[in-house]
Amino acid sequence: MRNCILATIAFLAGSGAAAAQTGDEAKGERAFKQLCTTCHTVDKGGKSVVGPNLWGFLGRKAGAAEGFAFSDAMKGSGIVWDEQTLSEYLKDPKGRIPGNKMVMVGVKRPDQLADLIAYLKKATQ
Ligand code: HEC
Predict the structure, then answer these.
(1) Tens digit of pLDDT for each residue in 67-117?
(2) Whole-angstrom Cα distance, residue 54 to residue 40?
(3) I need a labelling partner for 41 at 20 to 30 A (CA). Which of 20, 35, 56, 119 fits?
(4) Ligand 1 pocket residue status of 113, Cβ below 6 Å
């Protein structure tokens, strides 16, 4: 039992460290260009193309960007975007929000995910 608690604490400390891991913005920008720009823009007033424009999305409810027809799954997800929810979503879009219509396999590499988040925090606000 004691071991179990210790293992849990170690796990939480570990995942906390991962979430707090600071990514590299420049690498994140490259990753964004490779993986996301086919569908997303990040600049203020940018177009919503296949996916919604991402300006200002952090701190906002999922599915609230203006001028984009989100799925009911996204609008009804109850998610507010922060580093944690974004990281969970980008790792496994379909798993985190079943029925959402973003067709992307997911960012599986933790370092790339941290880079992307560092970039998005800067580029979208
Ligand atoms: C094939 C097109 C496509 C690609 C590639 C793609 N997305 Fe998306 N994305 C979408 C669509 C479509 C939605 C809206 C989903 C819905 O309404 O169910 C979306 C939604 C989102 C949202 C939610 C926005 C909001 O305002 O709630 C975020 C954040 C996001 N994408 C980030 C990313 C990132 C970061 C990448 C690259 C790692 C990426 N997307 C790659 C199409 C894409």
Answers:
(1) 999 999 999 999 999 999 999 999 999 999 999 999 999 999 999 999 999
(2) 7
(3) 20
(4) no
